[in-house]
Each structure stands twice: as structure tokens, then as C-alpha cells.
Amino acid sequence: MTIPVIHLRDVDRKRLASLKERTESDLQSRDIWFIHTVLAQCFLPYRDPKTERWHRKNGEFSILLTAGALEDGKAPEGFRVIGLPFGAKPRLFQSYICTQAVKLQSPVVPVERSMTAMMGELGYEAKGGTRGTIASFKDQITRFARCGFTLVGPGPRNALRTYVDATPIKTFDVWFPPHPDQETLWPSEIVLTDEYFHSLKDHAVPFDFRALQAIQNKPRSQDIYLWMTQRLCRINHRKPLLMRWTDLYAAFGGQSSRKKFKQNFPADLAAARASYPAARLEDHKDGFLFYASPTPVPKTRAAVKKQGERQSYAR
User: Which of 18, 154, 205, 308 is deepest in the core (most CB within 10 A)?
Assistant: First the structure.
């Protein structure tokens, strides 16, 4: 019998290596990151929507983004709307901010000593040039820092509740010089608004950041992974969750046509599942069936410290 030869792409080898590392090593506290529960169910755009507002709804949760502005002397009103954050980079950046705030239990988030160090922390190689990672990273974090967020979800007695209706970041003063040889002024800390910080403390979802790094350039796969992280553990063991194509498109469709989405979603789901091997799901003629599955981060490991206490993660 002839054994077929499977040719793996570099990205496939990277994901398999990441999976091997996660299965052979214990989960460390540094690997546990956090995201706001609404941001694990309603997502940023996948590509530039070229609009000033973005709204998405997933069940009882919804998100409304409003583009911010920068001072610009050349603009008629003295300010220039900079657009909405989109793609993979702001997703990882927002996870970093959420994680530091939750672990430190403080709205004051220390950041890496430089922009290139921050990119390295998120798993990106810093490359210059018009098509390099540095230029796009600058653009995306500026859009994210200026963006207004309205996060809505279920409250007491199933009434809708607005968790956040503000810009998450209160202070993040970064000056990007026009000439690439000039030094960038990078802040030592980010200050979150009180509204966003207190909502985050009450609605943080833990996840394994190593899994997200393995799909760092696939924003839809990142979203699927985060959604499964908080959703599969809440499914009734005797009643799987059927996500029909209509539901999947509403949650993860972004700006794709329904036809294009249906073609691409299985591959994005497969990449997310490779980062979450304990996820139980199967094809269905109307979409996909999801079954109750263990969380990537056991609840007993996701303890966070109070101010003045040492960080601890119970086993």
C-alpha cells in the first residue's frame, strides 16, 4: 500500500509545533490572558469598512464602534477621522490591554519599553517599509486607542444592559514621527477609562494566549477560538448547540458575501480548532454542531490577585 505524502505549509508546521508545545508543557500564569466577554462574542471588522460606525450583534450581545479623530491642521475642522480598527493586530492588542488590567487589577497598564518590544510580545516581527508590520501596527493601535466602544449584553432578569459606552483608553499618548529615522515617543503606560476597567473586571474571559499566537494572522480564526472558549463550556451536555449558517454568518461573516463566507469558514474553523483541540464539534447539513467541551483554561487556574497581593493560580 502506498502511503500518501502530505506537504505541509510553513504556517501548518508552526501551528503543529505550537500544539505540541501546549500539550507537552503545563499552562503557566504568563500564558493565561483575558478578553472582555462581549469582545469574545461580537468582533472588530476583518478589513477596513471605510465607515465611521460598525455594529454587530450575536444573540443577546452587540457591539457598536465609532471611529475617533486626530488633530490635523490641514483638515477643514482641524481634526481628521482616522477610521476603525480592523484585522488581527488590534485584536491581539486589546487582549494584551485586557490581560494586564485584569491581572494587575488596575486601570493603569504598563506597556513594553518600545513599540518593537510590544510587537514582539504579541508575536509579530518588526519590519519597516510601506508594507512592513511597523506601519500597519502604528495605524491599527492609533485607530483602536481613539475608537469609541458601546458593548451591550444581558443584565439582571434578562434585561439588556450596556456594559461600556466610552472609549476604553483614557490615556495613550504616542507620537509617531513622520521621518522613519526619528525616535518614536512611546508611553510607559496606558490608562483605561474607569467605565471600561470596571466592566472588564466583572466580565473577563480567560484563554490560552499560546493558542491565539498560533493563529495570529487569521482574525476570523481568532474570533472563532475566543467564541468557543467562552461558549462551549456553557452548552448543555445532553443538548448540543446547532449553529446554522445564518447564525454563523451573523457572528463571523464580517464584510464577506454569504457565498464567500460559506466557502472559507470551514478552513478558519479548522485553524481555530487546531488551537483548541479539546473543542467538540461536527459538521451538520445546516451548519455545525457544537458540544459541551472543557475550557482551555480551567476555572481554578484563572484566579487573579487583588492589589498588594501576589499573583496566584490555583490548580
Answer: 205
